Amino acid sequence: MAVSIKSPREIELMREAGKILAKTHEELGKQLRPGMTTWEIDHLGEEIIRSYGCKPSFKNYNGYPASICVSVNDEVVHGIPDKKHYIKEGDIVSLDAGVIYKGYHSDAARTHGIGEISKAAEQLIEVTKQSFYEGIKFAKPGNHLNDISTAIQKYAESFGYGVVRDLVGHGIGSHLHEDPEVPNFSRRRKGIRLQPGMTLAVEPMINAGRYEVVWLDNEWTVVTRDGSLSAHYENTILITGDGPEILSLTHA
C-alpha cells in the first residue's frame, strides 16, 4: 500500500478544492425543498460546481451518470438522480459530492432533513455527523488508522445504530480514491501509522437499524437491507503535525 504524502503545493490546491466543495454543499443545502426531484438537485449541484471553475469528480466516474449522489431515506449512498423521484416533507436526503480543482479532488457528504422530520431521523443525522468528529480526534501523527475507525464505530453503536461494513472511506488527492481504505468500524490490524501530509476522506455511513446493505439492480445505489433510514457525513481531512485539518468546511 502506497499512501501518498502531499507536498505544500498539493495541500494548497486541496484546500482550495475543499473550500469550493464546502460552499457547494452550503448553497445546495439551502435550495432543498419538498417537491424537488433528485434530478433537479443534481443539475443545480453541477451548475454550482462549474460556476467555481471546477469539474464534478463523480460525473462519469466508473460510469456513474451524475455529479451529485442523491440518496433518500433508506438509500445509503450512490443514489442516482431521477426526474421522477420527488423529495417530500419528512424525507432525509444525503448529498455526496466531489470537485476537481486544478487536478486535485475534494470529497464530502451531508445529510439534510426536508421540512419537519422525525426526532428519530434528527438524532440519526446528528449522531452520524458527531461520529465523524469522534473519529478524527484520533487523526494525529503517530496514531494508527484503526484508531479513527474504532472511535467512529464505538460512538455510533452506543446509540444502537448499525455501522455499514460494505463501504469505506479512502485516501484522496490527484485521484478521487487513493490508498488507504478508511473503514468506519474496527479491524484487527492497526492499519497504517498516520503521518503529516496524508489526506483522507473520512465518511461514516450509519443505519438506524442493522448494518447490512444491498445493491439495487442499477448496480450503484446501496440501500439498507432492513429498510431503516441511513445517514452519511463526510469530509476531506489533512493530517498535520497538530492534528487534523478539515479541508471541506468553510469554517473548520
Which key terms come to mind for this protein?
5-stranded antiparallel beta sheet, 252 residues, 4-stranded antiparallel beta sheet, Creatine Amidinohydrolase, alpha+beta
Topology, please?
Layout: H1 8-31, H2 38-51, E1 55-56, E2 68-72, E3 75-77, E4 92-101, E5 104-113, H3 119-136, H4 145-157, E6 162-163, E7 169-171, E8 178-182, E9 199-202, E10 205-207, E11 213-215, E12 222-224, E13 230-232, E14 235-240, E15 243-246
Helix pairs in contact: 1-2, 3-4
Question: What's a quick, concise take on this entry?
Answer:
With 252 residues, this protein is of the alpha+beta class.
Give structural notes:
- The chain has 252 residues and is an alpha+beta fold.
- The chain has a single domain, classed as Creatine Amidinohydrolase.
- It has helices spanning 8-31, 38-51, 119-136, 145-157, and strands spanning 55-56, 68-72, 75-77, 92-101, 104-113, 162-163, 169-171, 178-182, 199-202, 205-207, 213-215, 222-224, 230-232, 235-240, 243-246.
- The strands form four sheets. The chain has a five-stranded antiparallel sheet with strand order 8-7-9-14-15. Strands 1, 2, 4 and 5 form a four-stranded antiparallel sheet that branches.
- Strand 7 (169-171) and strand 8 (178-182) form a beta hairpin.
- Helix 1 crosses helix 2.
- The longest helix has 24 residues, at 8-31.
- The two termini are 29 Å apart.
